[in-house]
Design a protein that fits this description.
The complex is a heterodimer of chains A (259) and B (280). Chain A has 8 helices and no strands. Chain A is an all-alpha fold and 259 residues long. In chain A, α3 packs antiparallel against α8. Chain B is an alpha/beta fold. Helices cover 35% and strands 25% of the residues of chain B. Chain B has 11 helices and 12 strands. In chain B, the strands form 3 sheets. Chain B has a 6-stranded mixed sheet with strand order 6-7-8-3-11-12, with helices on both faces. Chain B has a 4-stranded antiparallel sheet with strand order 2-1-4-5, covered by helices on one side. Chain B has a two-stranded antiparallel ribbon with strand order 9-10. In chain B, α6 crosses α7 and α7 packs parallel to α8. The longest helix of chain B has 18 residues. The N and C termini of chain B lie far apart (53 Å). Classes of the chains: A mainly alpha (259), B alpha/beta (280). Chains A and B meet through α4 of A and α3 and α5 of B.
Chain lengths: 259, 280
């Protein structure tokens, strides 16, 4: 094992941040000039959005189920078991829906993007694309950024709905609570600020997933081993960033909406 | 549509003074991880010339090829393509310039997700050519490399030699003014290598395209210098009376430095001990 000097390590981190920032700015800047790869964007939307639907639905549903079970146990001690719907809805819409969907899509798609682009990089397909006069960031990165941001937004809404439905099912079938009361408390507890908070988060998460996945893919070196390394790093870094940005956005939203 | 394609492919030689080299390296140096890969490399390739790059593996030949296409930038020195300085070009101008350059990669670099037709037609699709025109030109390019039957196959279904031929078809489909062949015969058996070299000779003699070609096989290099394309026999034949193709020249690199730059005759009659040992 070789040790890297702190100076070289710091320089490498700064260089990576610089490369990542340049990639992000070019990926976004490309959206405002031609050519635009609309067909590629729709293909990615299908792959990222429709392809992730099963895991998002299942994760959201069972998270809602578990939330209802756990909440009921705690709330029973305070005689507030009827508030289960409120707790499930608030938790799902504000926090768990956006974060878990982001993490699930990150595990599936940041890894997919890093491995696909990484394989293209090590087999010189990225260089071939440039040699053929196509900007790989415009052709590969920008469509993935748009597709992930748009689809993660809708996937989060689906996850929220499935989670609430899962919570309601557990509440009615296992806890023998009133279904109408569950949905009523859930609906009454949510205010616009909560919904906005829950829907702003996936916009950031989607951007992080696509840019980190593509960044690690495009900076792959070292053959197939390098592809594996990039894939792992992409999932780890995007997952950590999603949670970090979730914290920052939550803080910001509390500042704006006061809750 | 043809007119639209003409616009995209405006003449790169426009405004270029008579006799200006198509490729010009001027004291180019590049290093990776503190190690010099190319040191003070200077040479030029005239219009219509085929320049063969020889030298031991790891001598910086592929790096030189990528520098010529602007895929990487030198640490010092200047590179001019079609008379224009690469360092002064914007990213967009660089992509426009590459539309006039065909490149055949060492490992073919075909797009795995596209079939042969879409791979070859990639540039035409990017330029929004009509489906009919693109198909027609793909068939023409595949006929040139004698691979029309593989039009619907995917790269994974092709042999190494076939992939290389598809790669050549993709490089020549837009009739580029400069072709960069990065080891087109690398890793192929002698018979397939000769087929590929025959295609290079055909492209050179039929279209008079300027080319840079890397090879590790001296036999291939000398076949290029000593043969011409016979369009009547539709075959590559030796130039009579042991003649040499005047437009084919050599550049030999060793450990990132130019050790020879000249014609075939000058190369074979060189008294440089390293060159003699290398050619032996």
């Amino acid at each position: 094992m070789t040790f890297v000097s702190p100076e070289a390590f710091a320089k490498r981190i700064v260089a990576s941040v610089q490369e990542y920032s340049l990639l992000c700015s070019r990926a976004v800047g490309n959206l405002f000039s031609r050519p635009r790869y609309i067909a590629d964007t729709f293909t990615q939307m299908d792959s990222i959005g429709v392809g992730s639907l099963p895991i998002v639905v299942l994760t959201g549903f069972f998270t809602g189920c578990v939330l209802a079970l756990q909440a009921a146990v705690s709330l029973k001690e305070f005689g507030a078991v009827n508030m289960t719907g409120r707790l499930v809805a608030l938790s799902m819409v504000k926090e768990l829906g956006p974060v878990l969907t982001g993490l699930m899509v990150s595990g599936r798609n940041a890894s997919g993007m890093a491995s696909e682009l990484g394989s293209m990089k090590v087999s010189e397909q990225i260089d071939a694309m440039r040699a053929l006069g196509t900007d790989p960031i415009r052709k590969l990165v920008s469509p993935r950024v748009v597709a992930t941001v748009v689809m993660l937004f809708f996937l989060t809404i689906i996850s929220d709905a499935c989670g609430t439905a899962g919570g309601a099912l557990v509440a009615v079938v296992l806890l023998h609570l009133n279904g109408g009361a569950f949905f009523h408390t859930a609906y009454m507890s949510l205010v616009n600020g909560d919904v906005v908070e829950g829907l702003v988060k996936p916009l950031f998460s989607g951007f992080i997933i696509a840019t980190i996945g593509c960044f690690y893919g495009l900076s792959t070196t070292g053959g197939t081993r390098g592809v594996g390394r990039s894939t792992t790093q992409a999932v780890v870094v995007s997952s950590v960033l999603i949670i970090l940005v979730d914290f920052l956005v939550t803080q910001l939203m509390i500042g704006i909406f006061g809750r | 549509m043809a007119a639209a394609l003409e616009d995209v492919h405006s003449d790169p030689f426009e405004g270029m003074a008579e006799g200006t080299p198509v490729v010009e390296f001027d004291h180019v140096t590049i290093w990776f991880d503190g190690r010099n890969v190319l040191t003070d490399v200077s040479f030029s390739v005239a219009r219509g010339e085929t320049r063969i790059l020889l030298g031991p593996a790891g001598g910086g030949k592929s790096v030189l090829m990528k520098l010529a296409n602007g895929l990487i930038e030198p640490d010092s020195g200047e590179i001019r393509i079609f008379g224009r300085l690469l360092s002064e070009m914007t990213e967009r101008e660089m992509f426009e310039m590459r539309a006039h350059i065909g490149m055949v990669f060492q490992e073919s670099a075909l797009f795995d997700s596209l079939n042969v037709e879409d791979n070859v037609a990639y540039r035409l699709h990017e330029e929004h050519a009509s489906e009919e025109e693109a198909h027609e030109r793909v068939v023409e390019a595949l006929r040139f490399v004698e691979l029309e039957k593989a039009i619907e196959k995917f790269p994974s279904e092709l042999s190494g030699g076939m992939r290389r031929r598809v790669s050549i078809a993709r490089a020549i489909i837009t009739k580029p003014e400069l072709i960069l062949y990065d080891s087109p015969t690398g890793g192929l058996d002698p018979i397939t290598s000769t087929t590929i070299i025959e295609l290079v000779v055909k492209q050179r003699d039929v279209s008079q395209t300027t080319a840079l070609l890397i090879t590790h096989r001296l036999q291939d290099a000398f076949t290029l210098a000593t043969h011409r394309w016979d369009s009547q026999q539709n075959h590559m034949v030796p130039i009579p009376d042991k003649g040499l193709n005047a437009g084919t020249k050599f550049l030999v690199l060793n450990e990132g430095r130019v050790v020879f730059d000249g014609t075939t005759r000058e190369l074979t009659s060189s008294h440089d001990p390293w060159l003699k040992a290398y050619l032996a």
